[in-house]
Amino acid sequence: MAHYVDLHSHFLPGLDDGADNLDTCVGMVRALAGMGFSDLCATPHQFAGMFQPPLDQVRLTFDQVSCEIATMLPDVRLLLGAENYWDDVLASRIRQGEPPCYDGGKAFLFEISPAVMPPRLEAALFDMRVAGRLPVLAHPERYSAVQRDLGVAESLSRQAALLVDLAALSGIGDRAQVKTARRLVEEGLAHAAASDIHDPDDSPAIASGLAWIEKRLGAEGVKRLLSDNPRRILIGQLP
Ligand SMILES: [Fe+2]
Fold first, then answer.
1. What's the 10 CA to ligand 1 centre distance in angstroms?
2. Alpha-helical runs (H) found in 5-103
């Protein structure tokens, strides 16, 4: 087993636009394990007005799924996080010192509006770093400011870990996202890559993204983006 770490996925059932039932959930976990992922972080959306399952319900679902997976796939470790939209709810949670982090640690995953960069984003990220947190930006290839100017990603990468989607690297889908994701990896700006799986049908594109990294950067690059760097991120270090 390759022991990859997936920092972004939506396999917990019934919480957001990911898995809709336990069978689908198990199918997604099996598919990721089959690609070599041993550590899977469940990151259901926390997005006001869209998907905002109560955190105690998220924890309950995570515990139930963990019990199932421990029996079926004992070599797979599940961790709990969240994909936090950059909104007032996240701002308030950060002010109170409790944004939903990976595994109760220092690192937390967030996403922003694809069309408009939040004002003062870099300054806010800097403040979080000073406070000891590690922000992790989901799918930087999706944001139009990054697509227009990779310098934006370079600035953000000093304060936040950049986590590209494997499916974007596969070459399938939106051309601007594919081009940007590949450039972020080729120019060393992406710290890690993740599945962002929402459905078992996403698996071929995710596997194809992994194959693209191996072809472009070799086994060493795969190890860095899928194992070494994600493990550092989980302990709150910016790789
Ligand atoms: Fe996501």
1. 7
2. 22-35, 55-72, 88-95
Q: For residue 153, give both structure tokens.
A: 């990603």
Residue 229: give its domain's CATH number. Answer: 3.20.20.140
Q: Tokens for 203, please give them.
A: 């698996």
Count: domains in the chain: 1
Q: Does residue 239 lie in a domain region?
A: no
Q: Tell how far the Cα of 144 is from the centroid of ligand 1, in angstroms.
A: 17
Give the span between the Cα atoms of 149 and 45, in whole angstroms. 27
Per-residue pLDDT of the chain (239 residues; tens, 9 = 90+): 679 999 999 999 999 999 999 999 999 999 999 999 999 999 999 999 899 999 999 999 999 999 999 999 999 999 999 999 999 999 999 999 889 999 989 999 999 999 999 999 999 999 999 999 999 999 999 999 999 999 999 999 999 999 999 999 999 889 999 999 999 999 999 999 999 999 999 999 999 999 999 999 999 999 999 999 999 999 999 99
What's the 15 CA to ligand 1 centre distance in angstroms? Answer: 12
